[in-house]
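In the laboratory, one determines a bound structure by crystallizing the protein with its ligand and collecting diffraction data. In a computational setting the workflow is compressed into a single prediction: the sequence and the ligand go in, and a structural description comes out. We illustrate the idea with NAP.
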Amino acid sequence: MKAMMLEEVGKLALIELEKPVPLGDELLVRVEACGICGTDRHLYLGEFPSRPPVTLGHEFAGIVEAVGRDVKGFTPGMRITGDPNIACGRCPQCHRGRVNLCHNLQAIGIHRNGGFAEYVIVPQKQAFELPLSLDPMHGAFCEPLACCLHGVDLTDIKPGSSAVVIGGGVIGLLVVQLARLAGATTVILITRNEAKRRLAETLGATATVDPSSGDAVAKIAGIDGILPGGADVVFECAGLKETVEQAPRLTGRGGVTIILGVLPSGLKTEIEPFDLLFREIRMVASFLNPFTHKRAAQLIASGTIVVEPLISRRIGLGEAAEAIAHPAGSGEIRTLVAPGL
Ligand code: NAP
Ligand code: ZN
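The predicted complex, in structure-token form:
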């Protein structure tokens, strides 16, 4: 089979690999679609630890082709989405139910061969069924949506709450939809790209703000702003120093700032503890997708969360290396790799 491998940091290659055989509790899945995520680029650049040589790709959906002898409940022909993050189940964090913080966490597409290939091996506990009627491209959004669900779960958004989302990439545009679904009646997205702002308005944002045309904090949380004093919940989904610094300033008294964005390791930001204290702002980090993948699959399968307009490009395996190695353009949201293309 063909697989797009990270052979070493800085070197991606489309190579021929032996088609894997599912053992024990494993499924052999024919990949239909796999999303390219910022993490793939970090892995390529060596900014994130991985275990090369390894096939990248952790946002995948596909059809079960064969199953190991211990598999129950999955049969060839079923469509699945894979939760790539495999917790050990035995360490202190797993025992506390904090599986995303597992000391022995391994990810498909980072530590084991992933979805930028014709086939991928998925342990059955990591697989969730998707309907055959679903566009498989949409199935590739379950993993990022599951991460966003965890972020929303860490808040106490209620019907009538207000939210600000910073960054109109896939994560921000999914969080906008989840915040509305959770009941927020005001959801403001801050992002620079005009097309993304227009799209967000069709996906449920009640207002959008361009951070490059004036002070977004004043426009939103200022006395004459859209939400004077700030929002109940702010989601940082841009992963930049300036937006992390902005996030608590957009958060209202007693509110919560959720940090979803990944900043380069070692980078420091300036936060004002006095302000956090006197307005009792909680800053909470949200990492991965503990127990949220199945709900993400249900939200995608039911069409409750809309992902079609988030697809910028569909490419074949042969073009994947180029797409990972080069940063996406500002208007681009998600590129999907389909081995069949
Ligand atoms: P992305 O496409 O890079 O989205 C970030 C967006 O931020 C960009 O599209 C950009 O859009 C916008 N932006 C840039 N400067 C801005 C500014 N000054 N103010 C407001 N928006 C700005 O990435 P993504 O896939 O959506 O992921 C977002 C972040 O979440 C990344 O850091 C990613 O690593 C992280 N992530 C975290 C988890 C987790 O478990 N916590 C899971 C997945 C991803 P414009 O050009 O329109 O400004
Ligand atoms: Zn563990």
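The domain at 2-143+289-337 is CATH 3.90.180.10 (Quinone Oxidoreductase; Chain A, domain 1). Keep in mind that any predicted model is a hypothesis to be tested, not a measurement.
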